[in-house]
Amino acid sequence: MGRIGTAAGVHAVLLTYTLIAIFPVVIVVLNSFKNRRGIFTEPLALPTAETFSTEGYATVLNQGNFLLYYGNSLIVTIVSLFLILLCGAMAAHALSEYRFKLNTLLGVYLILGIMVPIRLGTVAILQLMVDLSLVNTLVSLILVYTAQGLPVAIFILTEFMRTLSRDIKDCARVDGLSEYRIFFEVVLPLIRPVLATVAVFSMIPIWNDLWFPLILASSDATKTVTLGVQQFIGQYTVNWSAVLASLSIAILPVLVLYAIFSRQLISGITAGAVKG
Description:
Helix content is 76%, strand content 0%. It is globular. The longest helix has 36 residues, at 240-275. It has helices spanning 2-32, 36-41, 55-62, 66-97, 103-115, 122-131, 138-161, 166-174, 179-190, 192-208, 211-216, 225-229, 240-275. It is an all-alpha fold. It starts with a helix and ends with a helix. It is built from 13 helices and no strands.
């Protein structure tokens, strides 16, 4: 009975937290299908025949270049995630597999990036991008987000890779596989759950970021979806239907990513908890 009570208590806490986390998202989506009157008079109610409206979505899709901004966010996020996972996995493999001088010091140096907020270097980053002529390009955002995500990726992947059996890799070496083939054909398949975990946790701050797009890529051709939402917010008036519709559309990639990697994400978190 004690175990059952403990399990019930844990599940109750988790369920409560889940409901609290999901509630704002549900409210945003529901109100995106309402007119202005429905949003302000009945914000917690379901859309009715009187309040239902898709005007917000029509405005988002037809006004301005929101689809372009959406595409820019997808490009920046996908390329940044690819570089974070590839470079982070390769660095973690080197730190965990090979023993060389300054191995520990190098690992500490890379992990220090977790403790230092990247926004503290905004002025230096902006100056560097100006010198490289990368301002108002998607490349500048990709480089910044890759640098931002690598420390966490290297830390998580290094700790997990240290738990992998060396016998499997040694057998691959005996079979004549090169170190690169061992990494891509042996190591990567074994760490897919952890890669999924890193991908999900790295994507959210990249997709939702407003700071660096505003500073490094604020031109109309390079705006991201977070900046695109701002076009519906004026100095004196706000098109709330369009704002809520654009936010609802912006949620989709995160939901799709979670749906694709949900099983591996749970496996990765569980594996990290067990091995830690």
